């Protein structure tokens, strides 16, 4: 009964069954093989990913919640600054940035220079993204520079990012940080956080899946991922019919995540989602960052996004509201998008703390 064309449960079981079969074939290659796998067992191309993200943006508030709320946090950091520099550690098609450019251009005193550094592994894709963003900036009469960095985020060095002393720097980590957890020694994450700190950012904005998919016990991981993606598939079923090819294409992108966390282990398992509470401990206790907290503007922005979609099953929660820790004291530390009672994604903003324990000099300006 499992099929990508059925009910949410049928579709979910179809993708998890594929993932389980792939795991068995990987564990026992001398016994099992998967002959002529369907296309969805093969990793999607960058072009497919771009199409999928645009489709998802039309039917679900997830991309807009991530992009617009993070942009609001960036705009707050850039207030009154003349030269601004965004470092996107996984830019893909840069769909987040046109709205930020429009907001900066519409200010009474727009910045005199905007630079976006985009990190990615495909030179042609980075070039296309840079050309597209440059055209948008030109139409807005906004002085703009795009700096492409063709490399994996694990191999980045500070000199590659072209950080300049007179710039107000912000780092964007959208659905990226969990991939550094593949190194179970913790070194890859510490190196990444060290690189981010070395840019002396005014803010570091972060978005992550609100889930616990990094448990060492495979059975626990399987059960939790089933619950999480059941909510995702249910939310898509609410807006698109069962035979919708657009819905199938979007769900296949989530199936790629499912395959990785179910079928892979060790360094190959990169979809290691963790809850905001775990990330908060990592950022504050291990990474040397303080949480900037959630302001009224971010709350209004995220709620306005939900009103754009005719569905009352989504809601926004404030993580850590009223707690007395960090620079977001009393205002909460993160914003979480929920489907019914299931948390889906959390966004937050951070700033480095120096060795003496005081805030970065940028904090007073944010």
TrEMBL record:
This is GRAS domain family. Residues 263-351 are annotated as: SAW. A motif (VHIID) lies at residues 84-88. Keywords: Transcription, Transcription regulation. Residues 53-118 are annotated as: VHIID. Residues 128-160 are annotated as: Leucine repeat II (LRII). InterPro entries: TF_GRAS. Transmembrane segments: none annotated. It holds the Pfam family GRAS. PROSITE patterns: GRAS. Belongs to the GRAS family.
């Amino acid at each position: 009964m499992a099929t990508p064309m059925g009910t949410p449960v049928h579709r979910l079981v179809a993708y998890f069954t594929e993932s389980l079969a792939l795991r068995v074939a990987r564990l026992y290659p001398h016994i099992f093989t998967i002959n002529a796998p369907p296309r969805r067992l093969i990793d999607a191309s960058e072009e497919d990913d771009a199409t999928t993200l645009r489709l998802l943006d039309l039917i679900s508030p997830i991309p807009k919640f991530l992009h617009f709320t993070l942009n609001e946090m960036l705009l707050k950091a850039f207030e009154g600054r003349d030269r601004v520099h965004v470092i996107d550690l996984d830019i893909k098609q840069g769909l987040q940035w046109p709205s930020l450019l429009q907001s900066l251009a519409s200010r009474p005193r727009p910045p005199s220079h905007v630079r976006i550094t985009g990190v990615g592994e495909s030179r042609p894709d980075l070039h296309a993204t840079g050309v597209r963003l440059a055209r948008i900036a030109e139409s807005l009469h906004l002085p703009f520079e795009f700096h492409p960095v063709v490399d994996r985020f694990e191999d980045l060095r500070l000199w590659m990012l072209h950080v300049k002393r007179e710039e107000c720097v912000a780092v964007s980590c959208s659905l990226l940080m969990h991939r550094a957890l593949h190194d179970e020694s913790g070194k890859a994450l510490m190196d990444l956080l060290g690189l981010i700190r070395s840019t002396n950012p005014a803010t570091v904005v972060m978005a992550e899946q609100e889930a616990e998919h990094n448990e060492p016990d495979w059975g626990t991981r399987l059960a939790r991922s089933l619950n999480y993606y059941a909510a995702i598939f249910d939310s898509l079923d609410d807006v698109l019919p069962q035979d919708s090819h657009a819905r199938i294409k979007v769900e296949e992108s989530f199936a790629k995540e499912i395959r990785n966390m179910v079928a892979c282990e060790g360094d190959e398992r990169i979809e290691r989602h963790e809850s905001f509470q775990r990330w908060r401990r990592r950022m504050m206790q291990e990474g040397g960052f303080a949480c900037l907290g959630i302001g009224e503007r971010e709350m209004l922005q995220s709620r306005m996004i939900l009103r754009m979609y005719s569905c009352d099953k989504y809601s926004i929660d404030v993580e850590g509201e009223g707690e007395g820790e960090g620079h977001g004291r009393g205002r909460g530390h993160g914003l979480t998008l929920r489907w019914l009672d299931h948390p889906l994604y959390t966004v937050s903003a951070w700033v480095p703390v120096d060795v003496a324990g005081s805030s970065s000099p940028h904090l007073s300006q944010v």
